[in-house]
Specification:
By secondary structure, the protein is mostly helical. Helix 4 runs antiparallel to helix 5 and helix 5 packs antiparallel against helix 6. The longest helix has about 50 residues. The chain folds into 2 domains: about 130 residues, no CATH class; about 50 residues, no CATH class. The protein is built from 8 helices and no strands.
Length: about 190
Amino acid sequence: MPKSITNLVPEQWRELLEFLAAPISWIPGMQQWLLEFVFGAPSGWIAGAYFILLLFPVLLWVGGVWCTQLALYTVPFRSGRIEFIKLILLAWWDAALAVWTYWVGLARFFVVIGGWILTLARLALKFIVEFGFLDTPFGQPTQLAKERAHEPSWPAGSRINPIARANACHFDCSAKSCFRPSAVRR
């Protein structure tokens, strides 16, 4: 128990106050140690990992310990003590489940973000290859790139339908003029 609180009580009541405060007197020290551990990271990356992985579970732990220890004071005055203790244990089970669900959700979130990054990188590479930004390797003349710019890019099935062939040709020319204006000649 902090000395500042015990000094407020008369001398004859201090021992009784320390006895009654024994179930919660250790919590502030534990709370201070846990929060110093989370907030006192040596580097920025470790601090970020602590904040993401440990901040909410530590806050849940500290809040649960306070509530449980303060609820112990009410047990002698309750009529359904056994049911109350069962509910306290069930609340701790729910807290452990919440922490596990939080960590699994974080893992799923980072897997999804990684998938997005890989998919966008693959899409960007496809885009670069599709529109011919990597047509000619270094050292080749650009004349080959100009000759390839006028090849039809529509699939073989559109040779049957002239409207589809015309639309594909217009789309091909407009896309190439957008990204390489020198590739389209009129």
